[in-house]
Design a protein that fits this description.
Helices cover about 50% and strands about 0% of the residues. The protein has about 130 residues and is mostly helical. The radius of gyration is 25 Å and the shape is elongated.
């Protein structure tokens, strides 16, 4: 029930909360919430509001010490896992992902137009006077 109360509070604060019970287990009391738990929740991609709802804590407490550092650490772990997985997929032959990572990591770009200062080509419309 504490999770429902936190979700309602987050909704009142103007944040949309979509926490799935299968992803996390609600804390039984706020005293049981540790930075390690907050870090794990951030590492699976939950927003600050979703973490607050899952831990039955106010959103402002998640954004303050020591939880803010745990959220940064968890999101950093998520970014590393995503980057490693994307790189592995690209190396396994995913051409689209390979192109994207080449553009992001190696600053590769598509071919540029020959001259960017040229006016656009003129468009011609064929109209018969009988149709007007």
């Amino acid at each position: 029930m504490a999770g429902n109360k936190a979700r309602k509070q987050a909704a009142v604060d103007g944040e949309h909360v979509a926490v799935k019970p299968r992803d996390i287990l609600p804390a039984t009391a706020a005293a049981e919430v540790s930075p390690a738990r907050v870090e794990k929740l951030a590492a699976i991609g939950l927003s600050d509001a979703e973490i607050a709802a899952a831990c039955a804590l106010p959103l402002r407490q998640i954004k303050s010490r020591p939880f803010a550092a745990a959220v940064r650490q968890g999101r950093g772990q998520l970014a590393v896992r995503l980057r490693a997985r994307a790189l592995q997929e690209a190396l396994d032959g995913n051409a689209t992902l390979l192109k994207h990572l080449g553009q992001e990591l190696l600053e590769q770009v598509d071919k540029r137009p020959a001259a960017q200062n040229q006016p656009p080509p003129k468009a011609y419309i064929n109209v018969r006077m009988e149709d007007v």
